[in-house]
């Protein structure tokens, strides 16, 4: 009788909620982290997943094509209004060090014959973004690495400068390897795993625990309990979470940092792009400490 009463109560409780609410995961953040084990999501993933066919590539889950015929709407936005694209899957490498040392070595992987270089006056001041092709060191016009865009941080009176270089994820490993070679950067000996990565890996272990009785269990792999979970990729679809994300040159004092997915990137297209930015972004008031 007690068992029948319990079953009856469960049925009554389930009817009080709609089907969508009953199927909703208890911990959405943990469920979203589980889904990102192989391919991580952009900040706009939820919006795209509801409207686009998703494509898993380069370690990311990207919107490939819309589910509805919205090509005319996109064309109208580009010609008359504003269209926004999420390019956060592009990889960003940050170079920090003395300006003359940076320019000296960066000049070996580009050429003035192709157009702009890292030394262009308007780009060096940090006012404009530049675009150029990178080659292997001292190998121009052979051994092309690929196109990149870059922007310098404006001068603040110090001899140290910051340079951000954006590239397609398919080119990241080759370009990063070349930059580490020309600057002779190595992984720091005292490198430790960030706390955010540790906590996320611990969450993954907890999620792999067998659920308690009474809860539904998802279909297991062919290996069952012995299946090893895939490591969750934190922040960057092109780097293992246990690998270093910065490298230091003991000779020139240059530091190369991997800022992929830490600096988001959006592209606005259309005649009203500037108006959208001015209406959206507001300058913060200066506060003295």
Radius of gyration, in angstroms, nearest whole number: 25 Å
Structural class: alpha+beta
Q: Quick one: overall form?
A: globular
Secondary structure: number of strands: 11
Could you say what the CATH architecture of the domain at 91-188 and 244-260 is? 2-Layer Sandwich
Helix content: 25-40%
Taking the sheet with the most strands, its summary is: 6 strands, antiparallel
Description of the structure:
The strands form three sheets. The chain has a six-stranded antiparallel sheet. A three-stranded mixed sheet has the order 1-3-2. The protein has a two-stranded antiparallel ribbon with strand order 4-11. With 289 residues, it is of the alpha+beta class. The chain has helices spanning 2-16, 19-23, 28-35, 45-49, 71-80, 99-106, 121-124, 172-183, 195-207, 273-280; strands at 40-41, 52-57, 60-66, 83-86, 91-98, 130-135, 144-152, 160-167, 246-248, 255-258, 266-269. Among the domains are: 19-68, no CATH class; 91-188 and 244-260, 2-Layer Sandwich (Alpha-Beta Plaits). It is built from ten helices and eleven strands.
Considering the chains and any ligands shown, give keywords for the structure:
six-stranded antiparallel β-sheet; POP1 protein; single chain; Pop1_N; Alpha-Beta Plaits; alpha+beta; 289 residues; 30% helix
């Amino acid at each position: 009788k007690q068992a029948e009463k319990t079953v009856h109560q469960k049925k009554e409780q389930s009817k009080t909620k709609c089907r969508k609410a009953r199927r909703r995961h208890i911990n959405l953040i943990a469920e979203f982290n589980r889904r990102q084990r192989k391919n991580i999501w952009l900040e706009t993933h939820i919006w795209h997943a509801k409207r686009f066919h998703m494509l898993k590539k380069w370690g990311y889950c990207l919107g490939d094509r819309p589910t509805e015929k919205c090509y005319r709407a996109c064309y109208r936005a580009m010609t008359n209004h504003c269209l926004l694209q999420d390019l956060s899957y592009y990889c960003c490498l940050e170079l920090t060090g003395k300006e003359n040392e940076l320019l000296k070595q960066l000049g070996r992987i580009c050429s003035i014959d192709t157009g702009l270089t890292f030394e262009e006056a308007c780009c060096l001041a940090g006012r404009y973004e530049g675009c150029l092709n990178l080659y292997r060191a001292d190998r121009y016009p052979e051994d092309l690495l690929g196109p990149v865009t870059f922007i310098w941080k404006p001068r603040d009176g110090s001899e140290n400068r910051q340079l951000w270089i954006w590239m397609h994820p398919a080119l990241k490993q080759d370009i990063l390897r070349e930059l580490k070679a020309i600057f002779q950067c190595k992984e720091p000996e005292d490198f430790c795993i960030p706390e955010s990565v540790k906590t996320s890996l611990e969450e993954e272990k907890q999620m792999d625990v067998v659920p308690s009785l009474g809860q539904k269990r998802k279909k297991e792999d062919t290996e069952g309990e012995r299946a090893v979970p895939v490591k969750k990729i934190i922040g960057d679809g092109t780097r293992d979470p246990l690998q270093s994300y910065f490298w230091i040159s003991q000779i020139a004092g240059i530091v190369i940092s991997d800022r992929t997915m830490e600096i988001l990137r959006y592209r606005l297209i259309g005649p009203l792009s500037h108006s959208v930015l001015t209406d959206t972004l507001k300058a913060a008031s200066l506060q003295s400490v």
